[in-house]
């Protein structure tokens, strides 16, 4: 299913906010030229893995082979990039190729006329991408962004030895999760690790439980700006289940002070202090770096359990389908042409895919099962199969929603987990953010 655009009212407000931001911060916005040779397309990306193993080598090869279609890249740290690109897009001085996480941000760019419609130009490329990932760049049946990096769904991790010692099977439904809690507590371990201090890991529980209980339609109504959409009975039931888990002691003691940036939640799992954990596919790198033997022999992983009687398909997943590239509507025709050529011929060419797979990443590309199995082992194959077979891949809500709603969501979710508000109060509070 495609995550469609939100209501016109919401996106117009987002576009206005974008413009105001540009007026306030426009003096610091970068020119799309960025010091690049005249006529070159420019690209802004993120430092780290993308720069080192994906885009850096790709652009070096591309520019060496395309003297008339150069692409000059500049890289930023994550938080700095979010501010920089918002300012530049709003001021009409964005790079030719704009990186985003799609979702609410892309919707606001589209509604403000800041990115180009590339539907016809990408028609031939569409078939090589997994549909659930490709669709995140589609708004009102038009393509405004294409995938550019790994797919990273949220995974249900577990410590095989801890579960075995406690006589607990890997839960396949919510009732089995509840039944496992007293057995694991009696064995002296926390049922689940959770980095509650970071807030966003708690969102993973919200996303999966809402999907399993209410189905993806519940969140689609929120994205569409429907009045009182957060009051969907399935959302309230999902939040009742969250508080049921909290009251039963499902999460590690002191979870409200555990942080994800320090990988404290990951450490609780591999040291045997917790039995299970919800986290992104990206933490496999941390497991391999910090506990290589455990990652190879003691770590299990699957998708989130079903909820008996729920509307959501058990194949549905949540997380980060990919990062995305759009083309600035303010770029020159020459720059746009160079950018389109790179996006359709350079991004995810053979070298691009091979480097990602070698680095342990899972490209959102069709028919690479053998390559993933050879390089990524069981984990890579599991991630690839989950993505390939998902009936719905829900982008993380804090990326899908506009910034104001996403901030309110994390705040209210933190209060929900800490039993400071009821599920009904959560919905009432979030309903007030619709249209912001």
From TrEMBL:
Gene3D superfamilies: Periplasmic binding protein-like II. Residues 1-29 form the signal peptide. The keyword Lipid biosynthesis does not apply. Keywords: Signal. The keyword Coiled coil does not apply. InterPro entries: Bact_solute-bd_prot1, SBP. SUPFAM superfamilies: Periplasmic binding protein-like II (SSF53850). PROSITE patterns: PROKAR_LIPOPROTEIN. Coiled coil: none annotated. This is Carbohydrate ABC transporter substrate-binding protein (CUT1 family).
């Amino acid at each position: 299913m495609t995550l469609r655009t939100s209501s016109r009212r919401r996106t117009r407000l987002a576009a206005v906010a974008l413009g105001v931001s540009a007026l306030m911060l426009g003096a610091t916005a970068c020119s799309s030229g960025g010091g690049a040779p005249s006529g070159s397309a420019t690209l802004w990306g993120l430092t780290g893995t993308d720069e080192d193993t994906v885009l850096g080598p790709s652009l070096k090869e591309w520019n060496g082979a395309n003297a008339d279609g150069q692409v000059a890249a500049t890289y930023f740290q994550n938080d700095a990039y979010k501010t920089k690109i918002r300012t530049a897009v709003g001021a009409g001085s964005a790079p030719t190729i704009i990186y985003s996480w799609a979702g609410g941000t892309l919707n606001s760019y589209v509604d403000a006329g800041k990115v180009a419609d590339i539907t016809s130009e990408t028609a031939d490329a569409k078939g090589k991408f997994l549909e659930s990932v490709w669709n995140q760049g589609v708004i009102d049946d038009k393509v405004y962004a294409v995938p550019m990096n790994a797919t990273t769904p949220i995974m249900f991790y577990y410590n095989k030895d801890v579960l075995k010692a406690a006589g607990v099977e890997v839960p396949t439904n919510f009732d089995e999760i509840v039944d496992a809690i007293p057995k694991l507590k009696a064995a002296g371990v926390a049922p689940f690790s959770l980095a509650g201090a970071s807030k966003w890991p708690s969102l993973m529980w919200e996303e999966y439980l809402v999907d399993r209980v209410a189905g993806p339609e519940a969140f689609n109504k929120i994205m569409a700006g429907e009045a009182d959409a957060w009051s969907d009975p399935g959302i309230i039931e999902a939040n009742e289940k969250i508080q049921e888990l909290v009251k039963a002691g499902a999460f590690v003691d002191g979870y409200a002070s555990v942080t994800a940036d320090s990988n404290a939640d990951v450490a609780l799992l591999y040291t045997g202090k917790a039995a299970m954990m919800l986290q992104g596919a990206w933490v496999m790198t941390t497991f391999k770096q910090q506990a290589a033997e455990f990652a190879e022999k003691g770590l299990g992983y699957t998708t989130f359990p079903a909820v008996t009687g729920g509307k959501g398909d058990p194949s549905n997943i949540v997380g980060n389908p990919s990062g995305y590239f759009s083309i600035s509507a303010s770029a020159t025709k020459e720059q746009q042409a160079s950018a389109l050529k790179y996006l359709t011929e350079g991004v995810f060419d053979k070298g691009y895919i091979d480097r990602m797979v070698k680095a342990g990443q899972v490209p959102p590309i069709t028919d690479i099962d053998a390559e993933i199995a050879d390089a990524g082992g069981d984990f890579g194959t599991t991630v690839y199969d989950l993505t390939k077979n998902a009936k719905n891949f829900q982008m993380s809500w804090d990326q899908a929603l506009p910034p104001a709603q996403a901030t309110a969501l994390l705040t209210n979710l933190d209060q929900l987990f800490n039993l400071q508000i009821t599920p009904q109060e959560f919905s009432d509070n979030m309903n007030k953010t619709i249209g912001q």
